[in-house]
Design goal:
By secondary structure, the chain is α/β, with parallel strands linked by helices. It has seven helices and seven strands; from the N terminus they run βαβαβααβαβαβαβ. α5 (95-103) links the parallel β4 (88-92) and β5.
């Protein structure tokens, strides 16, 4: 069905992918990692060692680092990943994270940003402006602002949470993400939903 890349946590050691590759499988892996451990970058190192094709810091971690003004940590993450000759990305739930990363001239190789319309029953209301909505399926508080800003960003980005946790059908969700400027879509789904 054309799916040739998966995005997965590094923390579980990806045994399913290791077995796939041993059998000759060609699936690529974009790893999502968090700052942790003694030097903070162990998950990024592990992802590279396990065979990731690209690595990005998770959106919740990047959002927190930006709120704390820790752009040095984000820059170091990019350095650690690039030292392995891999594309290095920054994830974000909040648009503020990407705006500030651009302002700080961090220049990741790609972004991973939430994007979905508000055309579903439990979508955020006008007074709900948090990056993470009060329902589990509200992840993009201002999609028009995301679309407008991301059109000014000179690097590729992966739209995620595009189906708002299943509240938006894939046909509408994917079209909205691509028409909104996303270069790729990260779709969380079960294997039986792919077709």
């Amino acid at each position: 069905h054309g799916v040739n890349v998966i995005n997965n946590w590094v923390k579980d050691g990806i045994p399913h992918l290791q077995e796939h590759w041993k059998r000759g499988g060609k699936m690529k892996w974009i790893a999502q990692a968090r700052v942790n451990g003694a030097n903070g970058f162990e998950q990024f190192e592990q992802a590279a060692d396990l065979g990731a094709a690209a690595i990005h810091v998770t959106g919740d971690v990047a959002d927190a680092l930006v709120r704390q003004g820790r752009f040095d940590t984000l820059a170091r993450i990019l350095e650690v990943v690039r030292a392995h000759k891999l594309p290095a990305g920054i994830g974000a739930h909040g648009l503020h994270t990407i705006i500030e990363c651009e302002r700080a001239k961090l220049a990741p190789d790609f972004y991973v940003k939430t994007l979905h319309s508000h055309e579903y029953f439990t979508a955020p209301k006008p007074d709900e402006t948090d990056d993470l909505g009060k329902f589990d399926n509200s992840w993009c508080s201002d999609p028009e602002a995301v679309i407008d800003f991301m059109f000014t960003v000179p690097r590729p980005w992966i739209g995620f949470k595009v189906m708002a946790a299943g509240a938006i059908p894939p046909q509408r969700a994917f079209r909205y993400a691509f028409e909104g400027g996303a270069d790729f879509v990260l779709a969380g789904m079960f294997d039986w939903q792919v077709a």
